[in-house]
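Sharing a chain and its predicted structure for anyone who wants a worked example. Both blocks are below, sequence first, tokens second.
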Amino acid sequence: MKIDNSTIILTGATGGIGQAIAQALSKQGANLVLIGRNKKRLAALKQALPNQDKHAVIEADITSKEGLNAINEWVRSNTKINALINNAGSNDFSLLTDRRQAQITDEIQLNLIAPILLCQSSLSWLAQPGVILNIGSTFGSIGFPGYTSYCAAKAGLHRFTEALDRELYATGIRALYLAPRATETSLNSDAVNEMNRQLGNKTDSPQVVAKHVITMLEKEISAKWIGWPEKLFARINQLLPSLVSSAIRKQQDTIHQYINRVSH
């Protein structure tokens, strides 16, 4: 798609990755509809973007019926949308046995159900041709201790996006999936950052993810994993999962050391 002068909805706009995506898209000439739950942070982000008068904000919780209705009503009373980026997400690094049912439900709701419902709504107002870009995670392809429900949600988002793209064949709308690896945002606690350093897990800046978002939209790439060797491990895990399991078992003591630090 052509980004310049397009209108793009971005959820999770005020998070670390969201802000970097917003900056990158606005520099490319996009008109943005920034969605988040904090009105002040949305206003501050809009003010910090190039051509701030070209952008709009919607204060909405996308996990609620009211939030989805607010987005749909705004779109129908304003303008055609060329692309939807489902970027909002969260994770919680802890053992499944230490988590409350509400935490699990909320995580699945935000990372999987809300994007599915927003994609469904978008099919009634997204321009043709148009693009849906769902931001997933390497953990959607590699099950990792401490992230059980997050892995499940992102794996579901990957398969949902794949199925939707095939379902929309010949409609002029594409559904794309981008899977970042560990990224330097406030979602990661100090313990998680220290664990990644000790395990040698590389992390990317939000700006790196934003550059890949630009590439995904311009070239309409069906699916992409960011980072090496993560993209290799994702492929190996599909073909020979026992090899990846063996590698993770060697890290088990370190992983549990940091899980216990977060839990206690």
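Comments welcome. The mean pLDDT is 93.
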